[in-house]
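tmp note - GntR family transcriptional regulator
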Amino acid sequence: MIQFAGGPIGPAPSSHEIAAWVRERIRRGQFVPEQRLIEVDIIRATGGSRVRVREALQRLAAEGLVTIEPFRGASVRSASLEELRHIYRARAALEGITAGDFATSASDAQRTRLQEIQDELERCVTERSPERFGRLNAEWHELLVEGSGNTIIGELLQRLSVPIHRLLFESFYDADRLRTANEDHRRILAAILAHDAAGAEAAMRAHVHAGFQTLSAIEREYRV
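out:
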């Protein structure tokens, strides 16, 4: 395993572990948009082999977090606000469908788990734990896809991942935005538990659109 806070430990890391190491640094703003990712530096920091590092970078490129160019190598991908707008529009439609399908197709165990995650999200708001909220939020959305039974949409959503940048935890999940996002989750969950597919879809679409509005507001704040 790779130790995020320090150097490499234990056996040579897998490409999955190296990708997680790079992803974490993008998330925390230690690797910023358009910054080159030097293979030898990653090898030295993680203890990974050149082959595994290249596999990790290819994995991150498929996720939309890294760009790989001939003769230049890998760099952290930058995305314009217009590109993000298109991504969010597509995600709103697709995630709306998954929420509606989950309302009618999910198992009792999946509904129970969704409620459990929501309870944990509530605690994150109270305790002001933005990073934990972000991880649980991802799990919450992934569970909706799983419970919808629509594997095609799941694959499409993976291709439409929103590029992570340094604002994600520092600004996107500040105290007010945590509360707002959580209120959206409550509305979606209430519709799901009522087996209201149309209501769940509408609430999810509104939630995703609100996420883009938040990103737009952050962009304006940082331009001032």
